[in-house]
Amino acid sequence: MSQKIRIGKIATLLAMLDENEYSSFESIFDEVDTCLGKVGSMNMQKVISAVETAVKRSGLIEEGVYRETHALYHTIVEALEGVTRGQLAIGETMRTVGLRFVVVRGEPYAEEKEGEWIAVAFYGTIGAPIRGLEHEAVGLGINHI
Amino acid sequence: MSQKIRIGKIATLLAMLDENEYSSFESIFDEVDTCLGKVGSMNMQKVISAVETAVKRSGLIEEGVYRETHALYHTIVEALEGVTRGQLAIGETMRTVGLRFVVVRGEPYAEEKEGEWIAVAFYGTIGAPIRGLEHEAVGLGINHI
Amino acid sequence: MSQKIRIGKIATLLAMLDENEYSSFESIFDEVDTCLGKVGSMNMQKVISAVETAVKRSGLIEEGVYRETHALYHTIVEALEGVTRGQLAIGETMRTVGLRFVVVRGEPYAEEKEGEWIAVAFYGTIGAPIRGLEHEAVGLGINHI
Amino acid sequence: MSQKIRIGKIATLLAMLDENEYSSFESIFDEVDTCLGKVGSMNMQKVISAVETAVKRSGLIEEGVYRETHALYHTIVEALEGVTRGQLAIGETMRTVGLRFVVVRGEPYAEEKEGEWIAVAFYGTIGAPIRGLEHEAVGLGINHI
Amino acid sequence: MSQKIRIGKIATLLAMLDENEYSSFESIFDEVDTCLGKVGSMNMQKVISAVETAVKRSGLIEEGVYRETHALYHTIVEALEGVTRGQLAIGETMRTVGLRFVVVRGEPYAEEKEGEWIAVAFYGTIGAPIRGLEHEAVGLGINHI
Amino acid sequence: MSQKIRIGKIATLLAMLDENEYSSFESIFDEVDTCLGKVGSMNMQKVISAVETAVKRSGLIEEGVYRETHALYHTIVEALEGVTRGQLAIGETMRTVGLRFVVVRGEPYAEEKEGEWIAVAFYGTIGAPIRGLEHEAVGLGINHI
Ligand SMILES: [Mg+2]
Ligand SMILES: [Mg+2]
Ligand SMILES: [Mg+2]
Ligand SMILES: [Mg+2]
Ligand SMILES: [Mg+2]
Ligand SMILES: [Mg+2]
Asked: What is the Cα–Cα distance from D25 to C24, expressed in whole angstroms?
């Protein structure tokens, strides 16, 4: 099995790069469907909702189909493990996050049978609920869809 | 507090980008000290050791000083939480990883008092111990040093 | 040590079976004391409370005795690990549950010295807080009491 | 969305019931594809391998297709969370397991778009590595495939 | 490297001992800077805040400096892992705590380069939100600062 | 319910205090049964075994009775959560421990019905597998027995 499109790398780059840094990657970004957004919260539920809502609005997944909602949900949670690093909690553990998120849907593998996969990437800051008392955080989840 | 250098972004980009993609970022890479390496294993211990050994050889941390070893260790473990997403284990849970890692040391904050911080980033694949049965993974840890 | 009564199997079966499926198991259900109930919530605290309240009302444990409350509490939490599979949270991770629960108290082992044990089983659904966007979940905890 | 076939219940029942208890459930067992096996070990890797090998041999998933291997893997790990209840480890935490496992593949939802799902159930014992010093354990994982 | 001052032992003793038990340890308590307090809550956030506020008021860490806040935060969370033993949650898992906490700042190692470290210790009770239905709990975190 | 004997405090003190510091606490140590030992290892299994073996040899629990073995096992694991603070692993995460352990059995509560409870305390160091690159760690588990 060989990966022809690296959807995880695409999602992470899109979440991290500023607009002026995009240009050199535009060709690889065009090979997949993407959805971008931002969320700042002490509430994990709001972070998950923000991604789910953005994805459904963009049409990246089919809203009424649980199969796709299920795939997206577990991918978001996997990505949040990278952001929270050990305790899947933010407000409860007195932290706040400011994150950009990117969801990518595409066919990463050369074999047609491997079908579509989804990547969710977060990039931003995590820290005390006081502006500036924070450091960077990254998270990436990948799932078949 | 404002971040003047984003050591997490630098570490993650360096771990993800191919050489021909580097060029546009060279100026930001020059503002920090970095150490790069690769490791493929089913053994978490070997992954941690590979990073620690590379860092000590490169002189990025002072080998005899526990303070620095301690800062590095916790940063590696935080980064591995993103790679493993929920269970800090690879071989025990029948997975293998093939990872590039980057360690960055620098002063991310404008205020001099904030001093030096360290970032550890992983990028690569995680999956079944059969070539190709794998997907991408990313992890980032950040700590004061 | 040999198990003469499988309290975990009894609890799980009682939580999963519809009334018309009970009949063939009635003889084994009669060998133990049981307490049944239902709870639907996004709030883990309410799920734990629902079980504790039902158990105390039924007289299955002695209400004023911490020893018994302690045994029950840890058994509930163990069972919820199976329901939540990795993050002991529901609302915080944007999930809702609809569960039937069964608590069984009995003497599973042939040796008299092994005394009484308790089993808590959950069966039902977990998923997005939208009706139908959910799949099944099971959890079983066992403890000495 | 309504569940017409409860693959989780089927998998858990099949893992728990003795042959003479099967008869009353045969009609619901016939609506899905199943694979059964047994494994006893202090080694989590061997438990995961035992299930993967049995499933591939039975043809329940397509061996060369990573998509299906990936779905199965995460379902096994979810089920093991229920078995281990808090620490995804057995030998490392000085425990041994003796488990029956059942994998079920079928279409649980009435809507055709929901497609195929997979359930992995474990039932057996967990305890000290001394015969008899053990109690029951159950685990269930569910995933889209 | 040799530890000349055991800041973890000092913090734990101070959190556990009654005033009349202090006397024999006074000489070792004088070698470090300490801050003490109490907190009772079902809310993890309040427990973390109580420690952070007490430490900042006492001047044990420099309030405006994120580096020090970051070191303290991770040390508190490490100590809470010992208190909660497996699930970093209290109210969500229907528990309440009544804790004394002690924060110690000092130079535990003989080598000057090892610099300052911080220890956070908790001692008290954890249990059901009913007075007396509780048992003891201890937690200790250690970090470089 | 009121605690007349604090078995957790006794166990933690006994694990932490040097012989010359004991004297002032001897009266409270006499109210319970205790068992002490030492273990140094990168292997969690060996740490658990060391405690179990010492306890059985000392006669603090009845060896053939699973009920008592089960109570002890979960108490040890709870105490190790405090030692490892987030990942219940040592060698796998490239750490080694040098620990003193104390097991206390007694009746902490005034009410006779509360019966016997067990406390397991660890105190020592955790760190890199190089002498001196380590810091202190504490863990306490409590259970009814
Ligand atoms: Mg995966
Ligand atoms: Mg941090
Ligand atoms: Mg148990
Ligand atoms: Mg699911
Ligand atoms: Mg440490
Ligand atoms: Mg307890």
From this structure: 11
